[in-house]
Amino acid sequence: MTDATTVPDEQKQKKPPSRFRTAMSGTAGITFLSIVMALVIGAFFIAFSDPAVQEASSYLFAKPMDTISAAVTSVVEAYKALLTGMLFDPDATSLVDALKPLSETITMATPLILGGLSVALAFRAGLFNIGAEGQIILGSIFAAYIGFQFNLPWFIHLLLAVVGAFIGGAIWGGIAGFLKAKTGAHEVITTIMLNWIAIYLVAWLLTKPSFLREGRQDPISPPVAESAEYPSIFDEWRVHGGIIVAILAAAGVAWLLDKSTLGFQFRAVGANANAARTAGMNVSRMYLLVMLIAGGLAGLAGSAQVLGTEKSLTGGISAGIGFDAITVALLGRANPWGVVAAGLLFGGLRAGGLNMQTATGTPIDIVLVIQALIVLFIAAPPLVRSVFRLPETGGAGFMQTAKGWNG
Amino acid sequence: MSVAEAPAPEALPEVHIVPPTPRLVKVLIGLGIFAILVFGFFTPAGKDVTFQLTLGEEALALPDLTLPAKISAIVFSVIALLGAVGALFAARKERPLWPYTTVFGIFFVLGFLSWAVAGNTINLVGLLQGSLLLAVPLVFGAMSGILCERAGVINIAIEGQLLTGAFMAAVVASLTQNAYLGLLAAPLGGLFIGLLLAVFAIKYWVDQVILGVVLNVLAVGLTSFLYGRLLAPNQETWNSPPTFSPIAIPVLSDIPIIGPILFNQNIVVYLMYVIVIIINIALFRTKWGLRVRAVGEHPQAADTVGIKVNSVRFRNVLLGGLVAGLGGAFFTVASVGAFGKEMTAGKGFIALAAVIFGRWKPMGALAAALFFGFADNLQSVLSIIGTPIPSEFMLMTPYLATLLAVAGLVGKVRAPAADGIPYKKS
Amino acid sequence: MKLELRNITKKFGDFAANEDISLTVNPGEIVALLGENGAGKSTLMNVVYGLLQPTSGEILVNDVREEFSGPGDAMTAGIGMVHQHFMLIPPFTVAENVMLGHEHTKGAFLDLDAARSEVRRVSEAYNLQVDPDALVEDLPVGVQQRVEIIKALVRDAGILILDEPTAVLTPQETDELLGIMRDLKAKGTSIVFISHKLREVQAAADRIVVIRRGRVVGEASPSATKSELAGMMVGREVSLTVDKPPANPGAPVLQVANLSAADLEGRPILRDLNFEVRAGEILGVAGVQGNGQTELAEVLTGLYEGEVTGSIVMDGQELTGRTPRQILDGGLGYVPEDREHDGLISSFTVTENLVLDQFANPPYSSGGVLKSSVIDKRADELIEEFDVRTQAAAAPVSSLSGGNKQKVVMAREMSRELRVLVASQPTRGVDVGSIEFLHKRIVAERERGAAVLIISSELDEIYALSDRIAVMYRGAIIGVVGPETSRDEMGLLMAGVTND
C-alpha cells in the first residue's frame, strides 16, 4: 500500500474534492454508504423474488410501469415493516406497546453486543475468535445448570449464574488460547472445531436426565429459577437486565484496552507480537488470557439468552449469534463502543426482520444477506469509493491485516 | 587478484541428526495399547460378533463372519499394535509409514467394532458403502480448499459453496426435471461464492478468514431467503428435483466387498474419483501445478520469472468454487432431492478439517474425508444397534481429530508458506 | 548485449526514488552501481527488470526501445536478475526452480529430465556446480545464489543484474562469485553489479557509477581511491571513527561459559562459546551474516526458541532459563537487529514505543493501571534527550524516518540503568547523521560503566566502536582479536581460517 499521506500528481491539479465528499470517504462515511449499498441490493432481492412483481413482469413490455410499481411497493412495504419492527409500532394503543419493537431490538442486541465484544477484544490482540458460537453454548450450559439446579436468593443466584456463564465461555475460549500458546495451533481452526464440539456437547447433555426437562423428548432443559433470571421492566417487554451487563462489559473492555497494562500488552501483541516479545512481554500468556476473557464475554452472551430471553437451555440456544457477533465486531471496527452501535443495528435488523416476515411474508433471512453485504463493503473501501466516485483518502481500511495459516 | 580456495567446510564437527520418533507413531502405539486394554477388557465374554460381508445382492456371496467378541477384540487390537510398532521401525529406517498405519487403522477399527457391536451383527459392506457416500461432499469441498490454498488463498467459504451448489442443482433440476442439468448448474452456485472470494481477497486484499466467514453468512442468507420466498411456497415447480440412481459398473461391481462399495454408486461419486485423480496428477506433475504451488509458496519468486501471480490465484479460486459447487449437488440431486435450509449442516467445515488433516495434499485430504465419513456413518449405524458410545461423541470425531492434528499431536502441520497473504506489487 | 537507460524517473507518490537517471552498459562490460542503503539502486534495477514501471524515461536493449509490463518481458528481452533476497521456492528442487516460468513439458506432463539436463548444461558451461535434484531449502546460501545465476543464464540472459550479491557470502565465497562474474564477462555477458561495498566494486567493475538519493552523482574508474568513492557515495568526507577515550575496563559484568544452542530441529547453532565483557568495555562481534550472531543476541536476552546449554552470568546472576522480562529487568538493554520486526510497534505512538518494555514497572503504572501523565512526561524528556525528530509524541512511530526510529529504540533501552547493553546492527539503514549520534551514545554508555556487546556485519562499525573483537564463524567464536588487527586477517577469520 502506498503511504496514506501522499497524493498522486494528477489529482493535485484537479479541483480538490469537496469537504463533504472527503468526509464520506472516511471511516464513518464508508460505513454509512456500505449500509446504504447493502440495503439497495437487499431491495433488489426483495423486489425480484416477490410473486406479485413476478406476475407483473410477465407482461413487462405491455405495461412496464406495473412491474416497477409492484417492485417499489414490495420494497417499501418490506422496509417499512423492518423499520417499525426495529423502533416503534405506530398502530399501538399504549406507549408500552408502541415501544415494544425497541424492546425487541435491545433484546436481540444484548447477546450480539456481548459476542461482538468477545470477537473484538480477541481481534485487538491479533486473534480471530470464530469460536463465539461454542463459547456462548458453554456459557449457556453453565448458566442454565446453575439457574435450574440451585435454589438461592435473588441476585445472589443471578450473580452466580452470570459468573458461571463467564467461566463456561472462558473455559471454551481458554482451550483455543491454550493450544495457541502451547502449540501454535491456529485459533481460527481450533475455534471452528470447538464450535462443533460444543454443538454436539449440548445435544448430548440434553439427552441426559440431569439436563432434560421432565416429560420432554425434544432438547430442552428445565426452566431457570426466577431468582436467577435477569430482571425486566414491563411484562410486555422482553428486554431484560442483560443489556446492562452488555453496556458494563463494553465499558470494561474499553477501559481494559485503553487504561490497563494488560490491555496495553494485548494491543502490543496484536499489533506486532515479535516486538512485544522482544520488549519482554509473555506473548503466549497474553494469547491465553485474551482468549479466556473473550470466551467469558461470549459466555455472558449465553447468559443473556438463558437467563433473559429464552429462560431455559435448548439445543439451538446459540442461534447463530456467535457468527453474527463476528459481523458485529467487524462493523464496530473492533472498538467497544462501535460494537455496541453495531450490535444495536444488527439486533434491530433481527427484530425488524421478524416483523417484516409476519407483516409482508418477506423471509427474515434477507437480514443475513444485508448483514453480510454491509461487512463485505466496509472491508473493501476502494469498492465503495469507486461506486460513489469518492476521492481516495487511503483511510477506513482495517481488515487488510491478513496473516496466513502459518502465522 | 586470484580466486581464493574456499576452506573445507569440515573445519568444525558436524552433528549427525538422528530422526526423532514422529509424534504420530507414539500416538499410534499409545492407541494400540489403549485398544487392547479397553476393547479387550470391556468386551463381555461369551458374546459373539457377526460381520456381514455382502449386501445380499452380489453374484458371489461371501459367508457371514461370526467371531467370539472378546477374543476378536483382543486379537484385532494386538494386530493394530503390531502395525504401530512396525511404523516405529519404518520411521527409524526412514521408510514410508503408510503401509503400517493402514494396517493399524483397519485393525483398530475392527477391534473397536468387536467391542461396540458385541452380541450383534454389523454389515461391513453397507457400513463402508454409506461411509463413502457421506464422504463425497467432504471430498469435493476439500478439493476446493486445496485448489485455493495451494495457490495461497484461504478458503473458509467451502460451506457456503456447497450450499449454493446444492441450491442451484435443486432449482435447475426441478425446473427442467432433469437431474443432469441440475448437476451442470451446481458448479455455477459454487462459482458465485468463489468469484466474490477471489475479487475481495485478491483485488481488495480483505482478510481471507473474515471474508470466508462473511461469505458463509451470505450464502446461508441468500439460499434461505430464496428458499422461503420461492422454493417453500412452490415445492412442485421449484423444489422437486429428480435424483440419480446408482450405476453398477459391469465386472468391477461384482468384486466381493469392494465391488458394491466403490463401483455401484451414482454418477457424482464417479465424478469424485475422476476429480481427485486429476487434481492430484495436475498439482504435482504438470506445468500448471508447478506454477500453482510456486504461487502459494513464494509469490514474489513466481512473479520474477514472469508468472502472473494474481491471475493464477484468481483462476484457482474460481476453479475451487466450481468443484465445491459440484460437490453441493450431492446434497440434492444425488441423495435426498429437495433443497432444505442450511442443509449442508457444517459439512464444509469438516471439508476444511480434511484439507488441514490431509496436509494440503489431495490424497491426504481424500483419506481424511473418508475417515470422517466413516465416523459419521458408523455413528448412525451404531445408534441403531445400540452402542456404548453416545452418537454425539462419534459426531465430534472429525473436529476432535483436527483439533489434535493442529495441536501437533500427530506431527507438524504446515500450510503453503504464502497461504492467506495477499500478493501486493510494491 | 547493450543496455541503455535514458532519464529514468521513478516516483512513489511525491517521493522520487530515482530521478533522471541515465546509464549505459556496453556488451561484455561489468558496471557497478555504488550507493548507500536506500540510495535507490534496487528500485532502478527493479524498473529495468520490469518489476516496477518507470514514471518517465526509456529503457533500450541493443538500441531498441523496450517497455516492460512485467519481468516476463524483461526476460524475453534478455535481462536476468539475481535478487538480494533469493527468488527461489524452498521446497522445490533446483531443476524445478530453474524451469519455473518456462517449463519443459512432455505431453501434458512436466519433463523433469529435460530440466535436469538443462541445469547440467549451464552448470558445466559456466562452471557453476550444483545438483539439479537437491531441494533448495537444503542448500547453503552460496549454492542457492549459483542456482539464481543458472536461472538467469538458462534463459539466455545477455544482461545480468546482481543486486547486493555478496551480502550473505563469506569473503571467500565472494571471491568465487567475482571469478564467476569475470568468466561470464569473458563469454560476453554484460553485468550490472549493485553494491555498497567498496572493495568488491573496485575488484570487479570496469566502471563505477555512484548513486546518491536517487540521482547519478558521478562516475569513477576502479582505480579511484576508497575515500574518493566513499565521499561520492555519502556526499561528504566521512571518517567512521568515533572519538572515544581509551577503554578503562573494570570487573567482568557479562560472563559466558560453554554456551551452546540448537534450533528446534536439533541443528547446532551456537557452539561452545566462552567470553566475557567487562564494565566500561565494548566487545564487537564480527562475522558474515548468518553465522550465529543473531541467535547469540537472542540467547543472551532469553528470546531464543531452541535448546540452550551452558551459562550466562550477569553481575553474578545466572541468566539461562530466565524470561526476557526478568533479564531486561535485571539490567540488560537490548537493541534488536531488525527494528521494524522486533524493536517497534509501528501502529503505536512514539510515546507508547518509548515505554514498551517499562510500562508495567513503577512509576509508569501501578496496580495494573497505566499512569499516562507520567508516561507522557517521560516520553517528552526522551524525545528531547535523543533528538528524536517527530511531529508529536502521539504520532505513530511509523511516521518517523529510519534513523529516528532507531533513536526511539535506543532511547527506550538506555532510559534505565543498564549493566549490559546488547546492540545488534545498531545503525543499519540509518542516515549518516544519526549514525554519529547513535555511536556517541553507545560510547557514552560504556563510559558510564556498562558492559557493551555490539553485533554488526559492517566491519567499519566494528572497528570504529570495539575495544576487542570476537569473530564468529558457523556458530563458534573463532578468535578474539584487538581492533588493530588487519582487515585481511579479519577476512580470513570470518571465513573460518585460523592460524593454528
- What amount of the residues of chain C lies in strands? 25-35%
- Count the strands of chain B? 5
Strand order in the largest sheet of chain C: 6-9-10-3-11-12
Superfamily (CATH H level) name of the largest domain in chain C: P-loop containing nucleotide triphosphate hydrolases
* Spatial extent as radius of gyration of chain B: 24 Å
Q: Which stretches of chain B are poorly predicted, pLDDT < 50 over at least 5 residues?
A: 1-17
Query: In DSSP terms, counting alpha (H) and pi (I) runs of 4 or more, how many helices of chain C?
Result: 17
Which oligomeric state applies? heterotrimer
List keywords for this structure.
heterotrimer, B: mainly alpha, 3-stranded mixed beta sheet, two-stranded antiparallel sheet, globular, disordered N terminus, C: Rossmann fold, Rossmann fold, 2 domains, 6-stranded mixed beta sheet, 17 helices
How would you describe this protein?
The complex is a heterotrimer of chains A (407), B (426) and C (500). Chain A is mainly α and 407 residues long. Chain A contains 18 helices and no strands. Chain B is mainly alpha-helical. Chain B folds into two domains: 97 residues, no CATH class; 226 residues, no CATH class. In chain B, the strands form two sheets. Chain B has a three-stranded mixed β-sheet. In chain B, strands 4-5 form a two-stranded antiparallel sheet. In chain B, helix 6 packs antiparallel against helix 13 and helix 15 crosses helix 16. Chain C folds into two domains: 232 residues, 3-Layer(aba) Sandwich (Rossmann fold), CATH 3.40.50; 243 residues, Rossmann fold (3-Layer(aba) Sandwich), CATH 3.40.50. Helices cover 32% and strands 27% of the residues of chain C. In chain C, strands 6-9-10-3-11-12 form a six-stranded mixed β-sheet, with helices on both faces. In chain C, helix 6 links the parallel strand 9 and strand 10. In chain C, helix 4 crosses helix 5 and helix 14 packs parallel to helix 15. Chain C is globular and about 70 Å long. Classes of the chains: A mainly alpha (407), B mainly alpha (426), C alpha/beta (500).
